[in-house]
Design brief:
The chain is an alpha+beta fold. The protein has two domains: 164 residues, no CATH class; 172 residues, Nucleotidyltransferase, domain 5, CATH 3.30.420. Helix content is 38%, strand content 20%. The chain contains ten helices and 15 strands. The longest helix is centred in the N-terminal third of the chain and has 27 residues. The protein binds zinc ion (ZN).
Length: 360
């Protein structure tokens, strides 16, 4: 797997930061010109395509990097369009700048700075050398067996995102591990991308339409309960060894008298709880290990590089602002839950047996 980790470049002098800023501006402009050109006329990483646009004051290496990034971005955009069915417009180059191993190198540093970032500058043979310190998170990933710091980076304003490649470890259990994202509109999406309970909205609407205390209301609630139970059974229990879900959020909030009408109308915490209870029961019945993971940022984290940003998510669509990974937002949530499930396997929270922690 790949991880992106941010490091601070504040250790650099103002002069160097100024140079990096000027370089970023040039690289951004050049990458955009390649993107514009490639949008109308396809190309490849060769001299012909390279000569299509002017690189300004950029070196040959830098221009190659710009073309490479433009090609990658466009291919990721087209792939995303194919997968989601949305045809999006020509991509724009944003603030941060991707520098491949062609123009950015990371080397061991001296003294209190663990590393140096060497970026080919605008002037030939005059690299910009910026020392930076390692930190707990970077050390954490680099400490994994077989972890490798990749060359190249994404350069931002006074920061850089570095790439770490970590070999995938084998899962010990016999059987499959999946992550499940429990939601309201779609009841569940698993890490294989399968969706369950897509009619949940309609089922809940029926409950809301009925008069409180009426026979119809009771029937609608029973139908909703049945629906949830049926959907939970559809998970591939027979093949599973491990299932990861999000840890239950604070339920005391749901019992407060001050909760709003919308909150009650949505009945969200209730169905959420019911769904998780049901998964818990089925996991025990099928002798599948249940792991409850921290739900923080599961829908904002890139499952490929680990980048966390609210901008990664736009409604139902997920697109990483760093590595361009894209997909369905709920599926991404499930992938992150699975990743946490596998990463947290030692500290798994074994739930209480059904009956002990039920509603009264
Ligand atoms: Zn990413």
């Amino acid at each position: 797997m790949l991880r992106a980790v941010k490091v601070s470049l504040r250790g650099a002098t103002q002069r160097k930061l100024g140079k990096l800023e000027a370089l970023r501006r040039e690289v951004r402009g050049c990458t955009q010109r390649y993107m514009d050109s490639l949008w109308t006329e396809p190309g490849r990483l060769d001299a012909n395509t390279l000569n299509r646009v002017s690189g300004g004051s950029l070196s040959y290496r830098h221009r190659s990097n710009c073309l490479k990034v433009a090609l990658e971005t466009l291919s990721a955009t087209r792939k995303a369009a194919k997968a989601t069915g949305f045809m999006c417009g020509k991509p724009r180059v944003h603030g941060s700048t991707r520098l491949s191993s062609l123009v950015a190198k990371i080397e061991a540093g001296k003294g209190s700075f663990g590393y140096v970032l060497k970026v080919s500058g605008l002037a030939k043979g005059n690299p910009i050398v910026v020392p930076f310190k390692s930190h707990a998170r970077l050390n954490h990933w680099l400490g994994k067996p077989g972890a490798k710091l990749l060359q190249g980076c994404t350069l931002g304003d006074k920061w850089a995102a570095l790439w770490i490649e970590i070999p995938d470890r084998e899962v010990k259990e016999t059987g499959k591990a999946i992550g499940v994202d429990v939601g309201i509109n779609k009841l569940m999406v698993d890490s294989d991308g399968a969706k369950y309970g897509v009619e949940m909205k309609a089922v809940c609407r029926r409950v809301r339409r009925c008069m409180p205390g009426s026979k119809g209301k009771r029937r609608a609630c029973a139908a909703r309960r049945d629906y949830i139970n049926r959907q939970a059974k559809l998970l591939p229990w027979k093949d599973l060894a491990v299932i990861g879900v999000e840890k239950l959020r604070d339920l005391k909030k749901g019992k407060s008298k001050k909760r709003s009408k919308e909150f009650r109308k949505a009945a969200a915490p209730w169905t959420y709880r019911q769904m998780l209870d049901r998964i818990e029961q089925l996991a025990q019945e099928n002798r599948v290990r249940l792991v409850a993971v921290n739900p923080r940022n599961t829908s904002r984290t890139c499952p490929r590089c680990g980048w966390v940003a609210a901008e990664n998510r736009r409604g139902e669509k997920f697109q990483c602002v760093i590595c361009n990974y894209s997909g369905d937002a709920d599926h991404v949530g499930a992938l992150n839950i699975l990743a946490r499930t596998l990463g947290n396997s030692q500290e798994s929270m074994v739930p209480a047996p059904p009956g002990e922690e039920q509603r009264g």
